[in-house]
Structure formats: C-alpha cells, structure tokens
Amino acid sequence: MENFTPVSAIMGGLLIGSAAMLTLWTTGRIAGISGILSGAMFPKQQDTLWRLLFIAGLLLGGAVYAIASGGLEVITQASPVMTVIAGLLVGFGTRIGSGCTSGHGICGIARFSQRSFVATGTFMLAGFITVYLVRHV
Amino acid sequence: MYKADATADNPPISAFIAISASGFLFGLGLAISGMTNPAKVVGSLDIAGNWDPSLILVMVAGLGITVPSFHFILKQKQPLFTKQFFLPTRNDLDGKLITGAALFGVGWGIGGYCPSPALAALVSLNTNVILFCGAMLVGVVMHHFLMEK
Questions:
Q1: Residue of A86, A108, B4, B40 with fewest CB within 10 Å of its CB?
Q2: Number of domains in chain B
Q3: Residue-averaged pLDDT of chain A
C-alpha cells in the first residue's frame, strides 16, 4: 500500500462532494458527468448552457491544478487500441446504465437510490474483476 | 429520466455562476485526489496486487459531504437559484442498469478512467487521454443512435 495517498484522497473527495452539494443546492441538478455530457451533446430541453458551463469548469479545475502543481501526472498503461475500447465501453455503458461514478456513486447513493446502489456495486465489481484479469491472469 | 422542464425556469445569472463554480471545484477535487492519473485508479482497483485504497477514500470522503447535505437540501421547497429540483424518478432495477454498469466497469478497469477524471485530465494533452475522451464521446453517440428513438 505504499502508493496510498490518504490526505490528498480525502481533500479531493471532500471537494468533489462539496461540488455535488453546491450543484444540487444552487441549481437543483445532479452532478452526474456522463448525464451532463450526453445531455449537452443531444439536448432534450433548453439546458445546454449550464451543462457546458459545468464541463468548462471541470476542465478549468484540472488546468488550474496542473498549473499550480507544475503539471498533471498522467500515466497510462493501456495500449492505444485498448484505450479506445475502454473509452467506447465507458461512453456506451454509462448511458445504458444511466450514470457513472459521480451520478450513481457520489450523488445517487446520497439520495439512497436503489438503482444507484446496484449500479455502483456493479461497476466497482466489474472494475475489480477486469483489473484482476488484466494484471494477474 | 429527468422530470420535464415544463415550468422552464429562466435561471438567473447567479445559477450559471454557481454551476461553473461547481464544475471547477469538481475538477480541482479530481486532480487533487490523483484520480486524473489512470495508473493510480487501476492501482486502486487492483485488490489482488499492491492495492492503493485512495479511490475508496475519495468516494467515502465525497459521500461524507453529499449524504448529510443532500438530506437537508432535498427538504427545501426549491433550490437556491432555480424553481425546482431535477431528480431521476426511476426506482426499478432492470437489466439495462446492470449491463450498462458492468460494461462501464470493464472499460474503467481497462482504461483507468471514468468520465469526469478523463475530462479533467484533458489539459495534460496526453495522447491516450485524448483518445479515451474521443472514444467515450463516440460511445455516447453510438448509444444515442442505437438505443434511443
């Protein structure tokens, strides 16, 4: 467990939770990124602007941290082909499953949504099994 | 999935400032937590190897804020700057939910990214991050044309 970074994990988690709290409190929306993204790409209502602003803020948050800390550490282990397959599965899967780590994991569980408990358990389990198969089999 | 926006608010500018600030805090939190680094995420999913529990702690800390605060926020009549809450209304468990979550989990384990950290890491201009985000958008487009009518 020498890679465990509890302080930054807690600080980051508290900020993410605060962002989800602020989103719901001020605008009544769920901070679920896959839903915000797909809703911005295929608008059903006139709500594209807030979605784009949220995503712009997200990108800016990453950028400000990168500037302040001298760069974002990004180490990828998957090949380009596997990266594309992963991206397709994440994009397609989060739409079929109506959410991702933020919408189901951080917001849905906080609403005690049965669907979010099941979805979060499922994608965590699938992630554990996938990494086990990739690394240990 | 969401309640129809029938009473279509014309949200005040403060709502748009708040939503931008929320996105910013979200991105900052992801970067600080290290979840923008796929190697760290995969290490956090590698319970049989040299396990790094950081991801679990990020989720627990996040829930430490959302669980109590959502409880109080959802007791309010309306949000601060808009007229209504936009909450998912479904409560049934179906095959799509589980299949989708499973497919997502497999992609997450392979690529080390879920949607938000991938977007927040775009600033790195790392080729694999750009590839991942491009493919993720294609996945959303595929879903739109294959699964929605």
A1: B4
A2: 1
A3: 96
